[in-house]
Design a protein that fits this description.
The protein has helices spanning 7-32, 40-55, 70-82, 86-91, 96-112, 115-126, 129-136, 141-160, 165-185, 187-210, 215-245, 251-268, 280-284, 288-294, 296-318, 326-351, 358-386, 390-415, 430-442, 455-464, 490-499, and strands at 447-451, 473-476, 485-489, 509-514, 518-523. By secondary structure, it is mostly helical. The protein has two domains: 7-32 and 92-415, no CATH class; 430-523, no CATH class. The chain starts with 6 loop residues before the first helix and ends in an 8-residue tail after the last strand. Mean pLDDT is 87; it is low at 270-274.
């Protein structure tokens, strides 16, 4: 009797292992700091979600997330239905990674036409720390790019049913509903997806003009017409949402104008641009070498995907590719579109627009295309090694296992900003929180220095919630003006020493609060009128 497992059984085993690994990554993210971790976007989503729940409207008065109400509204609905607070829901959203990876697998199988290569592509996503961080944190991106994957799936699947009007209509309708959901989640990133579609149409048109081959030309022309219609329809959806359905999203227009102003300064040399966004690598991590080691996996994946894209481009330009499926053709076109946007994002970062982090934010959608682009090459390489003699196969297998384990550890350390390798920490201590809450209860209309960057302020905002108004003015970073109060914790001192940053002097201050881990200092009054 043949004991070799069937292909279907092997496929199911691979999918189960993929889900187990995704669950492990999510649980590690939650348990690494025991729930005592926070960053800026999580705080903003929480306040917006609480505002929707309290005020009963998508644009709360005190705090509105201008880019879209989709994710905060989802938090509000879940909180209302389950009875759990929005803060509690935000602390456990990392488990959504399992669903995200499953959707990625289904989409990649549709794009690439195979189960094994789809599993490899989804696994490659989990090795890229810049992708993992943005999807695990309590932000809209886990929903935004889940919608992006569903859009890819529906678009490719709809090509199958062109001759079946009923199924085709269902897929088209679902596509536009999912795109509307993506727009409500984040208008800006929905616009980047739309831009990628437009660039894909342009690239496909150029290839069509280059390669005229009878029936293939007719088939390609029909696919391009679909892309053009989809791009126009999605543009109408974005325009309608911004101008009529969600007025706060008009902020996107001002953002685009701001980018244009900064680019003109950078490219035309009208003014010296002093922003150096990528110098932050030297201060955010223990060393540049450590940063490169932690991100080695994603750069290897980028190089493999770029090589695959260029190889396919060369084949398309020289010979055409009549055997290329609609999914692989769309993958190739969209990869080029997102790669172009990523390159332009680097230019925008150098211009100092959008907090100088556009390249990092655009890497997430790019990685969604880079992983399936690189997966066939890597899978082909594994199969070649497996056909070698047993001794070489044994050594290569152990080498691959050790390499993957190292890359997994590096991804986890980088995505969690582990203090062993990073200088900008996302965790905090209960003592820090208690000190901040004490100062907010006992002080009013004071300037309180709290941290070298916005982390401690984000923690206070997150824990205080939407209903509690800020009583004091919190000051961050290096400031020349004197402060009436200075809040310094042990973690703040350690982080400042790690980053070679100077803390405010407290020699002329009295310590008015001390819980062992954090101290609050009050400047001594020099006149009877000072407080």
């Amino acid at each position: 009797m043949n004991s070799t497992p069937s292909p279907r059984l092997r496929s199911k085993a691979l999918i189960v292992l993929l889900c187990i690994f995704a669950a492990f990554v999510a649980v590690y993210w939650i348990m690494r700091y025991g729930g005592w971790a926070m960053e800026g976007d999580a705080m903003r989503m929480t306040l917006s979600g609480e505002g929707i729940l309290v005020e009963g409207q998508l644009a709360p008065q005190r705090y509105t997330y201008a880019a879209g109400h989709g994710y905060p509204a989802l938090l509000a609905v879940l909180s209302y239905c389950t009875g759990a607070s929005v803060q509690t829901l935000q602390l456990i959203t990392a488990v959504w990674l399992v669903v995200f990876v499953l959707v990625a697998f289904v989409t990649y199988r549709e794009l690439l036409g195979g189960t094994a290569v789809a599993v490899v592509g989804a696994f490659l996503l989990l090795l890229q720390p810049d992708f993992v961080f943005h999807v695990l944190r309590s932000s809209h991106e886990k929903a935004t790019w889940l919608f992006g994957l569903l859009l890819l799936f529906l678009l490719v699947r709809s090509y199958r049913y062109v001759m079946l009007p009923a199924r085709f209509a269902v897929h088209v309708l679902l596509f536009y509903l999912v795109f509307l959901a993506m727009v409500t989640s984040n208008t800006y990133f929905a616009s980047t997806f739309l831009t990628a579609l437009v660039l894909s149409f342009i690239g496909g048109s150029i290839l069509l003009v280059w390669d005229r081959r009878g029936t293939q030309e007719q088939k390609g022309r029909g696919a391009l017409q679909r892309l053009l219609i989809v791009s126009l329809a999605c543009s109408v959806i974005v325009f309608t949402f911004i101008n009529f359905l969600y007025p706060p999203a008009v902020e996107l227009y001002r953002t685009l104008s701001h980018i244009g102003d900064r680019l003109s300064l950078l490219l035309l040399g009208a003014e010296q641009v002093t922003t150096r966004p990528y110098e932050r690598v030297a201060t955010a991590w223990r060393s540049t070498g450590i940063y490169l080691s932690l991100t080695a996996a994603q750069w290897l994946i980028v190089l493999c995907s770029l090589g695959a894209w260029l190889s396919r481009a060369r084949h398309l330009v020289r010979k055409g590719d009549r055997s290329l499926s609609s999914g692989k053709r769309l993958l190739w076109l969209l990869y080029g579109g997102f790669a172009f946007q990523l390159a332009m994002g680097t230019v925008v970062d150098l211009a100092g627009a959008l907090s100088a982090n556009l390249q990092l934010r655009l890497f997430v959608p790019f990685s969604l295309l880079a992983s399936p682009m690189a997966a066939p090459i890597l899978l082909r390489g594994l199969r070649v090694l497996w056909r070698k003699d047993q001794r070489l196969r044994f050594a290569a297998s152990w080498f691959i296992v050790i390499l993957v384990c190292c890359l997994v550890v590096a991804s986890l350390l980088k995505s969690t900003n582990d203090p062993s390798v990073g200088n900008l920490w996302i965790f905090y201590s209960p003592a820090e929180l208690h000190a901040g809450q004490w100062s907010d209860r006992h002080l009013k209309n004071r300037s309180v220095w709290v941290d070298t960057f916005s982390h401690h302020q984000d923690v206070l905002e997150f824990r205080s919630g939407y209903a509690q108004e800020r009583r004091n003015r919190y000051v961050l970073g290096k400031q020349d003006a004197p402060f009436s109060h200075v809040l310094i914790s042990r973690l703040t001192r350690l982080q400042a020493n790690r980053s070679s940053l100077a803390l405010p002097g407290v020699v002329t201050h009295n310590c008015v609060y001390d819980n062992g881990e954090a101290q609050l200092y009050h400047r001594r009054p020099l006149t009877p009128y000072q407080r």
